[in-house]
Amino acid sequence: MARTGSRASSPIPDTLKPGGIEAESHPWQIQLVEHPKRFESSFFRAAKKTARKILDEMSDAELPYGARPDGSEHWEMHHGGSLWVKGEGGWRMYRARVGIEWSMQFCAEPVKVDRLRQEAAELVGAFPQTLPALAELGYEEAEELLRTPIKDADGVEAWTDSLFNACVPMSHGHHQGVLPKVPGEHHYPWPVKGADFVRYDDFQLWVTLPDGTHAAVAPVDRRGSGDGHVRLLHVPEGSRAADTLAEAQEQGLMAVLPPNSPVALQAFAEQIAPGRRTAAGPLDTGRARREGRGSR
Fold this sequence. Notes:
The protein is of the alpha+beta class. The chain is built from ten helices and ten strands.
């Protein structure tokens, strides 16, 4: 909870103020308080149970986001707009125009959420096998969810925790992780994070900048072109490169690093011969095979 200005005009409620903070010499302060106890609704329990049954029916190659969790992990269900349908080829998941994160339901306007329901109903209607298949899995509430207009907070809650919003299956890292381990969707912009699921395995999307902050980069030309420049796509606000990236975007330009930069060498490290001092030049196509890896 933030306090702005030289002095807060009204106190933080006592239930959120263990110890209380008043500040006159700082422009603002943020308190870290205990999260209000989050209960797991019956809607979410039913949706998760169904999603896991669907995932059990899918092959590894059909999974939407990354590999199946190993024994030390489990699927985490992201409230990201999960539109599950069943067609001739089996189960598929599409992403809704907007996904409603659990906390965001409390600012969600019912009429706007109802538009998401209508769009989901139209998609599911194009896959007539879906509702009977969901009923067989025990998710009989699917049809009622799709046909019932959302008019109030109860309706918003039911939709937010439903199979059609709350069940984008991800590992913990892809869901909530932070660099330098795994970048999660909660912390990195989706237009960049999404590339993790379509990039070549031997291209390093996430790199470390000279100041120690982490960034995302992309090639400036197609694979095998020999161009080793990389485009800077995302940096954290505290990075020394943040102002440069912001200026480039403001002017409609690209922020590009040269092929001999440490960043480009990191990004293309698995596509070039060991010891090469530039990322420009021919692709080392045999390296992945020699090291026992493949590329998507």
